[in-house]
Design brief:
By secondary structure, this protein is α/β, with parallel strands linked by helices. The protein has helices at residues 3-17, 69-78, 105-117, 133-141, 161-166, 173-185, 191-199, 201-210, 214-222, 227-233, 249-254, 270-280, 284-306, 329-339, 350-356, 360-367, 392-401, 418-428, and strands at residues 26-34, 40-48, 56-61, 83-88, 126-131, 149-155, 259-262, 310-313, 344-349, 371-376, 407-410. It has 3 domains: 3-165 and 246-262, 3-Layer(aba) Sandwich (Rossmann fold), CATH 3.40.50.1820; 174-235, no CATH class; 309-428, Divalent-metal-dependent TIM barrel enzymes (TIM Barrel), CATH 3.20.20.150. The strands form 2 sheets. Strands 1-2-4-3-5-6-7 form a 7-stranded mixed β-sheet, sandwiched between helices. The protein has a 4-stranded parallel β-sheet with strand order 8-9-10-11. Strand 10, helix 17 (392-401) and strand 11 form a beta-alpha-beta unit. The termini are far apart.
Length: 431
């Protein structure tokens, strides 16, 4: 591409993205980084034409060095004073070796940074950038954080790949069969050929999605081009040491440079990010929380596809459900917040909340934006309103004040005449 054409394209993109104007020109040249085992990884070096460069941005990717990464990561940053290295990970797009997803990056990431240190243009300031797999390449390189690191930007990138594969308790079939098929074909022909392969993926993958056993069902589809898929299926146990190279939780504890975490999609919320961080520190309760939140996130995805809303009910452990995890209203609300989907809402049971926690009006005020349904009964005895200690007219007034127009249901037993019980229920919520 001619420099003048490239500059016009860069300027147009900057206007679209609302970026400041470019401050310098840049050159692009191929680079070769040797790993400790002699394998050479290929990359492209975007070198700013500037006497005052701003440091180096490293992007390590399995998806090639062309569009869109060349434009959005290479050219944009280089035109604003940064050295940029976009590297193809082992076994992809001309880099040597055999592609072993995720596990190889624990070694190759630090080796690439060691190579950077020897480059005459590297000034000791390093940032890493990328999403999805390229987010993982960052976490794995930060298990032993390099002293040169100034910042990392991780976009929807797992730090524990075993949890990504089996975090709900079952193998994440759709995601990782589809990803394996995509990677197996990503270097087949040109853009049109790859587009045709992608367009036919749903039909091609159906036998592997519906057949059993899973490894055998996938073989006619993957045809030996994704051997890692069978390996993942062969190691379902969380405690299996085979997964150690796929875990970078230590990076969460050790990195001291600023890290920007960008998440998206169902279940990508600040609460979920916090759960991931705690789980990385091997907190058993956080691991349970994370598994519960991920399972609910998948349920919300099913609801989204079907046009339905699921509700999660709080319970009490003091009387009716001893030993039930995450049963309190505060726990249920936190899980719904963590998932962050309109297709998962809280079923706020005020009987259970009173038994376990109390402060019902304060709870209603806190939870109402995430409530899909309210259930009531009095305490003790779980009978109709007016037979116990809960001031339901005050609760009804609070719901009216807060603008609640959803369902209020009676879940309990009649103290006597069922018709009279329903009348008491109606009277308590008639203002």
């Amino acid at each position: 591409m001619a420099a003048s054409t490239r500059r016009l394209g860069d300027a147009a993109l900057a206007r679209v993205l609302g970026l400041p104007a470019a401050r310098n020109d840049y050159t692009i040249s191929p680079v070769r980084a040797p790993m400790r085992d002699g394998v050479v990884l290929l990359g492209d070096h975007y070198k700013p034409v500037s006497r005052t460069p701003r440091g180096t941005v490293l992007v390590r990717t399995p998806y090639g060095r062309g569009l869109p990464v060349s434009l959005l990561n290479g050219r944009i940053f280089a035109a604003r004073g940064y050295h940029v290295v976009i590297q193809s990970v082992r076994g992809t797009f001309g880099s040597g070796g055999t592609f072993q997803p995720m596990a190889q990056e624990v070694v190759d990431g630090p080796d690439t940074i060691a190579w950077l240190r020897d480059q005459p243009w590297f000034d000791g300031r390093l940032a890493t950038l990328g999403g999805s797999y390229t987010g993982w390449t960052q976490w794995s390189a930060l298990i032993d954080p390099p002293p040169e690191l100034r910042a990392a930007v991780v976009v929807v990138g797992p730090h524990d790949f075993r949890e990504a594969v089996y975090g709900t308790g079952a193998f994440t079939l759709g995601d990782f069969l589809g990803w394996s098929d995509q990677v197996a074909h990503q270097e087949d022909g040109g853009y049109l050929r790859r587009a045709a392969i992608t367009a036919g993926a749903a039909r091609r993958l159906r036998p592997a999605l519906e057949g059993l056993p899973l490894p055998a069902a996938a073989e006619p589809v993957l045809r030996g081009r994704a051997p890692w898929y069978r390996e993942w299926l062969s190691h379902p146990q969380a405690e299996d040491p085979w997964w150690e190279p796929y875990r970078a939780g230590a990076a969460v504890e050790r990195v001291t440079a600023p890290v920007l975490l960008v998440s998206g999609g169902v279940g990508a919320t600040p609460v979920m990010a916090m759960l991931h961080a705690l789980a990385a520190q091997r907190s058993p309760r956080a691991v349970w929380w994370l598994q519960a939140a991920r399972t609910l996130a998948r349920l919300a995805t099913i609801g989204e596809r079907a046009g339905r809303v699921f509700t999660l009910e709080n319970l009490n452990t003091a009387v009716d459900h001893p030993g039930t995890p995450f049963a309190r209203a505060a726990d249920t609300l936190a899980l719904v917040e963590a998932v962050g989907s309109p297709h998962l809402r809280m079923n706020l049971d005020l009987y259970h909340a009173q038994v376990g926690e109390g402060n019902l009006i304060q709870l209603v005020e806190r939870a109402l934006p995430l409530v899909g349904e309210i259930q009531v009964a009095d305490v003790p005895g779980r009978r109709e309103p007016g037979t116990g200690e809960i001031n339901y007219p005050a609760v009804a007034a609070a719901l009216e004040r807060l603008g609640y127009r959803g369902v209020v249901a009676l879940e309990g037993w009649a103290a006597g005449d069922p018709v009279l019980a329903l009348e008491r229920f109606r009277a308590a919520f008639t203002l």
